[in-house]
Prior knowledge:
There is one protein chain. The longest helix has 18 residues, at 62-79. The chain contains five helices and no strands. The radius of gyration is 15 Å and the shape is globular. By secondary structure, the protein is mainly alpha-helical. It has one domain (11-89). Helix content is 65%, strand content 0%.
Amino acid sequence: MTATVETDNDPYALFIYAMKSPVTREIYVPKIARFFTFIGLTPPLEDQSREFVNKCMAAQGWAETWIMRFLQTMKVQIDRKEIVATRCGAYQAFP
């Protein structure tokens, strides 16, 4: 018998379920939490995930705008030597 996960309307559960390795979860859960905090979503993470999806569905281009702002902020932090460039690379999964 295989265990099932109720993920129909739960973006956070889908996010967690997609990562099979506990090590991957340890790395990416804080990263998504940091991003959600940056864009002003209120914790807990489960609620932030739902709110993020709702905002994405309500306004085309909303997510792209915030992702670009987040990456631009990280670039400024790199230029100021507040963080190192390797930290930013982990957020840029796609070229």
